[in-house]
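Below is how a single chain appears once it has passed through the pipeline. First comes the sequence as given, then the structure the pipeline wrote out for it. We keep one example in the README because the format questions we get most often are answered faster by looking than by reading.
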Amino acid sequence: MTDFINKTSITVCNPYTTADGSTIRELMHPEQHGNQNQSLAEASISAGCITRLHRHFICEELYHVTQGEGEMTLGEKRFPVSVGDTVCILPGTVHQIRNTGENDLKVLCCCAPHYSHADTELIDD
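Resulting structure:
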């Protein structure tokens, strides 16, 4: 068995804005880093902003808040989130997150299987 070690650093991951309105840094993704079954990204949502309502049909997603505070919409539920909170988003569940704080809201997003644009449906408001 070959040892697989692949390390990335947030300092070299170029940010981009996604269709849902958040700024993303792909920290680990099969298309870029050679891992196989999941992806990890950091999302940054500016103060007062909200991501577009969306869902993923195949992937299960975990959100882990590392900075700031916000309001999570998960299906029909809305609830506050803050540093240290982790939310599980099951496949097919409509979701979005709003920054309710005064600074950037930062969330680690883990998808299994890995994130794919083709697996993402944006929901009209």
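The chain is about 5% helix and 45% strand.

See the next section for the split statistics.
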